[in-house]
TrEMBL record:
GO BP annotation list: lipid modification
Official protein name in the record: Membrane bound O-acyltransferase domain containing 2a
Transmembrane feature ranges: 29-49, 61-81, 101-123, 382-400, 420-439, 451-469
MF (Gene Ontology): acyltransferase activity
Membrane protein topology class: Multi-pass membrane protein
GO cellular component: endoplasmic reticulum membrane
Signal in keyword set: no
Region (Disordered): 214-234, 477-509
Main location, first listed in the record: endoplasmic reticulum
Gene coding for it: mboat2a
Species for this entry: Echeneis naucrates
Length: 509
């Protein structure tokens, strides 16, 4: 395997002997090696380039140069696309008018990403799972577009027009080129992210990220030692590295034993009872997820080791380092709804989709969000099949929760039964939905769905038709109208009461 993928590796060949020994593609070996190097640099960065010891300028320069070095090692001259994408978007932000700057920047950035994805997929290596250069560009796309919207909110809108989260994220000045490149291409997140807000990143660089969150502790310990000293990320970093090791071991042990492709094998489909096919699909997807757990948890540990990611304290006074965490493993594996699964999977991407699309799209935000997610992920047809299926799944899950769940809340035992049933349904629905995401092509994806007779598609459509439910925006609007009506009635009552009191006083006089 290693020798077959050597030619497709665009980065350094220094670790080729190790790739051949462990029989893994060279690009993946380079990726893991660079992430481990970034982890060591993160510890050095926190200890020797602490904000109390050096200026933000030096921290920006070092973080950016280390990021470019890792990009060159992994992707060679293809990493110039990172600079091209960032440079084009920065030019749009500087020269375009503030009123429409965020829209132009969104189109240019996402368009450049899609163009690179098209050339990589349909010109170079269709279907190869490799650490390609468009992976980091996906994270950079999130950062650039988020930054453009936050600048637009901060410079063109009044506070009354912004939601609380938009007020927190709004940026009141245009970042310098160095700050911009440091935010997009720093060594902590250049290879695997995660996405973070510009304000949080600047607070980390300037050393002001601890003070506001020292005062958020609920048990009163903010006046003790936690306010006087910065919390150490050591325990959280060690815990996350242990999670990485376990995830990598599980993935390498099971990925070849439980391939998803077996679900479309003719002998398997014809000779295996349907209930066993369902169980196998769940186990195959369960074996696939640790790969993502490893990558995202390691990226989170790197940021924490550098001192980035502090998010206040728990009720027992222990520090939380989950500000930019990308997943919650237990909440994923025990999710009892489609939405709960998605809320805990790739968290920062979900927040990005919510902030730039769902909250701002005036027409059918759910469908628009799934479509944007498919476009951002790439140009494989399987991605679009997955996210189109996800729209129907989400609508059906929402209808079931709205119409059926209240009947199971009458007692704890009924609720536990409901949770068990919805957990099983959620895991099967997720596995069914993401099969095209793994198979990539249209033919194999439809072959799988035909072997299942499109049963979950039809069931979800039936549920959506039979159990209608108002959209969340309509519910929020109705609730707001109700509150306004109650407020008007209260004001009218107070007004009538005041009039009656005045009339009684007049009569008494």
């Amino acid at each position: 395997m290693a020798t077959q993928t050597t030619a497709s590796c665009t980065g350094s060949t220094l670790l080729q002997p190790i790739s051949e020994i462990i029989n893994l593609p060279l690009d993946q070996v380079n990726f893991v090696a660079c992430q481990l190097f970034a982890l060591l640099m993160a510890v050095w960065f926190r200890l020797y380039l602490h904000p109390s010891k050096t200026s933000p300028f030096i921290r920006h320069v070092v973080a950016t140069l280390l990021g470019f070095y890792l990009a060159l090692f992994c992707f060679g001259w293809y990493s110039l696309h990172f600079l091209m994408q960032s440079g084009l978007s920065y030019s749009v932000m500087v020269f375009a008018g503030l009123e429409h700057m965020h829209k132009y920047c969104f189109i240019v950035t996402l368009g450049y990403l899609i163009l690179c994805q098209i050339t990589r997929v349909y010109v170079f290596d269709y279907g190869m799972y490799s650490a390609d250069f468009t992976g980091p560009m996906m994270v950079i796309t999130q950062k650039i577009t988020s930054l453009a919207f936050e600048i637009h909110d901060g410079l063109t809108k009044r506070e009354g027009q912004l939601t609380p989260s938009q007020k927190y994220l709004a940026i009141s000045r245009m970042p310098s080129l160095l700050e911009y490149l440091s935010y997009n291409c720093n060594f902590m997140g250049i290879l695997a992210g995660p996405t973070c807000s510009y304000n949080d990143y600047m607070a980390f660089i300037e050393g002001t990220g601890y003070q506001p969150r020292h005062q958020e502790n609920a048990n009163g310990k903010e006046n003790g030692k936690y306010k006087q000293s910065e919390p150490s990320p050591k325990n959280d970093v060690i815990s996350k590295l242990c999670t990485c090791a376990i995830s990598l071991f599980i993935y390498l042990s099971l990925c070849k034993l439980l391939p998803v492709e077996r679900s479309i094998n003719d002998d398997f489909v014809n000779n295996t009872p349907f209930h066993l096919q369902v169980i196998y699909l769940y186990l195959a997807m369960l074996a696939l997820r640790p790969k993502y757990y490893f990558v995202w948890t390691l990226a989170d540990a790197i940021n924490n080791a550098a001192g980035f990611g502090f998010n206040g304290y728990n009720k027992d006074g222990s520090p939380r380092w989950d500000l930019i965490s990308n997943l919650r493993i237990l909440d994923i594996e025990f999710a009892t709804s489609f939405k709960l699964f998605l809320d805990n999977w790739n968290i920062q991407t979900a927040l990005w989709l919510k902030r730039v699309c769902y909250e701002r799209c005036p027409i059918n935000p759910t469908a628009a969000t799934f479509l944007l997610s498919a476009m951002w992920h790439g140009v494989y047809p399987g991605y679009y099949l997955t996210f189109l299926t996800g729209i129907v799944m989400t609508m059906a899950a929402r209808a079931v929760r709205h119409n059926i769940r209240p009947y199971f809340l009458v007692s704890d035992s009924h609720k536990r039964i409901y949770d068990v049933i919805t957990w099983a349904c959620t895991q099967v629905a997720i596995s069914y939905t993401v099969v095209p995401f793994v198979l990539l092509a249209v033919g194999p994806s439809f072959k799988f769905y035909r072997s299942w007779y499109f049963c979950l598609h039809l069931l979800c459509l039936l549920v959506v038709v039979a159990l209608p439910v108002k959209s969340r925006r309509r519910q929020a609007k109705a609730q707001q109208d109700g509150l306004q009506k109650d407020s008007l009635q209260e004001n009218q009552t107070e007004h009538n009461s005041t009039d009656n009191n005045c009339n009684q006083k007049d009569k008494a006089t």
